[in-house]
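Support reply, case 0932

Customer input (verbatim):
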Amino acid sequence: MRLSRLWLADFRSYAHAELVPAPDGLTVVVGANGQGKTSLLEAVAWLATMSSFRNAPTEALVRDGASRAVVRAEGDRGGRALLVEAEIPRQGRARVQVNRQPLRRSRDLLGALRVSVFSPDDLILVKGGPAERRRLLDEALVALSPRWDALRADVERVLRQRGALLKQAAGRLTPEVAVTLDVWDAKLAEAGSALARARADLVVTLEPAVTKAHDQVASCAATVGLAYEAGWAGPGQDLSVSRLACTLLSARQDDLRRGVTTIGPHRDDLGLVLSGRPARTHASQGEQRTLALALRLGVHATVSEQVETPPVLLLDDVFSELDPARTSALVAHLPSGQALLTTAGDLPMGVHPDAVVRLVGHQLVAG
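Our regenerated output:
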């Protein structure tokens, strides 16, 4: 989808706002800190995923004093007009319509609008724990095909049910607990191994795209290594159903003692290597930021190759995170398609956006 117009009402600090980005190429939103630049990108991303990339609770999206926020986006997908509208209450479930038709399931929205987001918090992709890297892979899978969201939901459901059983068992393996664990283990082995294989296949596809993006932004060649790491799969990384089933069985006593599922795809990781060394512990902060951006751009490139139109690229305050050389390299190698970028300062030399929007007193002014 290409975004042609965005309307906000009572979203974050905006009473009302309307953004008309360039139909193609780069639109830059310029404004002082605290004016609401990030909120514009957050609204676009919310319509794509029904969640905040800032991990904000729903009530934080609604302007103080208002009961609900409204977000509408107009554009086209594959040459056909598309209108996505959402009412986001402080409490309760959001109401969403696509082309005036109520959305029956949140999953049905996936794929209507695709986005790729880079924010300053993305440093956690490299420096943080495995959960953020798993999230990166799962979000990329869903962007490629909404069907992966159903598989991810199945895994999460089985983990919740198995976890509840383990807590109820209180460390005792009665015959009834053993029979029920057998059922949940079989379900987790099937769904969990399928999710792990999908992630591992994606990592193989992503590695050259991430390497290319890294070399372009860093303006120098470096060896970037990505590897899917599943502790339960053994040295040969056997991601089969039988392997996970056997490992779950062998970990059963430990799981009962601890009251949690200790192995499975919810504990897997994405290993990141830069120039032969683990990026999390050995790369400088500048190198880590470049690698985090390369991960986002690599996912963006991979999704763009496999879907009908590139996702809308959302770059939040990226200039503040990169030195001048990397900034120039990023701008020179921005992928084709539509991109929205926010900045608090003047545009760096060499940046020639297709449209500029300025935020003055929480008001959007073109030019």
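We compared this against your earlier run and they match. Two observations from our side: The chain has a mean pLDDT of 93. DSSP finds ten helices and 15 strands in the chain. Please reopen the case if you see a mismatch on your end.
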